[in-house]
Amino acid sequence: MADFELADDFLPIYDVSDAVATVADSDRESAWRALVDVDLLKLGREAPVVGMLGALRMLPEVVGHLLHGERPAKPPESMRLRDLPTIPMYEGGWILLGERPGEEIALGLVGKFWRPVIEFARIGSAAEFREFDEPGFAKTVYDLTVRELDSNRTLLSGLMRTATTDEYARRWFRRYWTFGVGSGAHILVGSLLDSARRAAEGGPETQA
Length: 208
What we know:
Radius of gyration: 17 Å
Order of helices and strands: HEHHHEEEHEEH
Number of helices: 6
Low-confidence stretches: 48-68
Mean pLDDT: 81
Oligomer: single chain
Largest sheet: 6 strands, antiparallel
Number of strands: 6
Shape: globular
């Protein structure tokens, strides 16, 4: 597996971790461009399982809007990794923790993910993510990397890592992770990497 420097920096101690990887028959630069250019919304539309998992993640927030008499935000036409930090957390956004251009990008999220309507922490920067320790929350890092194997083969890897801030949150998150969320995260990131691989190799990004 590739080294995940940003995950090790922001979340060196954690409760659960999972990783997935694929090899692209392409140079590293092409693989990196393909990775950061994957349209996450298109991926969800064209890969039914990914779309379903994404919808399930957003469903509590949509219900919350409706319960308060609010219209859910209209989704953008496209969404790529670098777009996620510009979107509020309750609409699917993440915090950009860091980027090593051409090699690694890491995104973070802090919330009570196990609740029917997810409660997100009020943080907006990588520094706040690093220092956050309020009881009852979980901190998650998704770290995506590319590493050259040889002149025309590149390893694309994804790491999903979560730490909780106290024992109460740890118990609830472990239940949440065990009852399918861990495998869902694995499928989501695996599909993202496969889409990037196909694009880097010159094929279609997504498949049904």
